Amino acid sequence: MSVDPILHFATVDVPQGHILLVATSRGLARVVLGPDPPVTSRLEELAACMPALIMNRGNSLLAGLAGSMRRYFMGRRVDFGRLPLDLGHATAFQEAVWRITSTIPYGSVRTYGWLASHLDGRGCARAVGQALARNPVPVVVPCHRVIEESGAHGGFTAGERWKGILLEIEGGEQRLRLRECRARPLTKAAPHHGGLEAE
Q1: How many CB atoms lie within 10 A of CB 159?
Q2: Which pLDDT tens digit goes with each residue over 171-189?
Q3: Predicted pLDDT at 189
Q4: Which residues are identified as catalytic?
Q5: Are residues 144 and 177 in the same domain?
Q6: Of the four, 84, 124, 196, 197, which is 20 to 30 A from 30 by CA?
Q7: In this structure, are strands 6-14 and 54-57 parallel, antiparallel, or unpaired?
């Protein structure tokens, strides 16, 4: 696959830190999570690898995604599944791992072993972990939803802090729904006359 000579980038500030989004004409190529504004250093790294690059600030894809990221980090459910992606020089195995990872529902977790079992025996849990470590678009491909059999979080490209933040955000919606159910007024029951009621 040829390298797209034009990269578009956008930065998003969220309460938990800073996000750099990078896209090509084919789709989203990078999501970088950082405690500090990551733009300068990351773009310099990309430019060093691809000296013919032209950097442009933003495009329509990134403008929409920036808003979605802000909503996500405020605890809103966001579906990133329809975004076009440019996964560059990913191997067929990595793409298979990322594709299955993208099926894990919001607010749910799966194990590395579960993921490996869905690859028709083409990889083991360790290989799955290595593929997830190379995921260029965390959050969008939700590798934070993959944990160890023991329940430990396991590794994450952006570090354990970010994985904990993402799991907490998605667990927060579940707690909100539970509070709403508890606060919802009960419907008025029909008078009870004793005996068994019909099913």
Answers
A1: 13
A2: 855 554 445 445 555 444 4
A3: 41
A4: 143
A5: yes
A6: 124
A7: parallel
Residue 154 has a pLDDT of 86
Please check whether residue 161 lies inside any domain of the structure. yes
Express each pLDDT in 90-138 by its tens digit. Answer: 999 999 999 999 999 999 999 998 999 888 765 588 889 999 999 999 9
Cα–Cα–Cα angle for 57, 59, 61, nearest 5°? 135
Same domain, 96 and 144: yes
Domain boundary among the residues 44, 73, 102 is at: 73
pLDDT at position 162, please? Answer: 92
The CATH code of the domain that includes 166 is 1.10.10.10
What strands lie across the sheet with 6-14, from one edge to the other? 28-34, 17-23, 6-14, 54-57
Three-class DSSP category at 29: strand
Answer yes or no: do 53 and 113 share one domain: no
Asked whether residue 64 falls in the same domain as residue 131, the answer is no
For 181, the token pair is 């159910």
Kind of pairing, strands 6-14 and 17-23? antiparallel
Q: Is residue 69 part of a domain?
A: yes
Per-residue pLDDT, averaged over 128-151, amounts to 92
φ, ψ for residue 90, nearest 5 deg: -65, 145
Backbone dihedral angles phi then psi of residue 45, each to the nearest 5 degrees: -60, -45
Place of tokens 């579960």: 114
Domain match, 98 and 168 both:
yes
In sequence order, which residues have a C-beta less than 8 Å from that of residue 5 and are 6 or more positions away?
50, 52, 53, 54
Q: Which two tokens stand for residue 78?
A: 């966001």
SS3 assignment, position 38:
coil
